[in-house]
Design brief:
mainly beta
Length: about 60
């Protein structure tokens, strides 16, 4: 499961939601995100931008 230091979700109405230090999974119905705040499921996804500033854990 990918990890991102910053994950921006762009919605169909061009609004953005930003998450930090998350794991995420893209799927046909949208994106599922796991953060310190809990689990989020977003279905109105136009685009995502994930940023990783450190090396991935192996």
């Amino acid at each position: 499961m990918p990890h991102a230091d910053t994950l921006d979700v762009v919605h169909h109405d061009d609004t953005r939601t930003r998450f930090t230090d998350v794991r995420y999974q893209l799927h046909r119905d949208g994106i599922r995100i796991w953060s310190a705040d809990g689990e989020h499921a977003i279905t109105d996804v136009l685009m995502t931008q994930a940023y990783r500033q450190r090396e991935a854990d192996r």
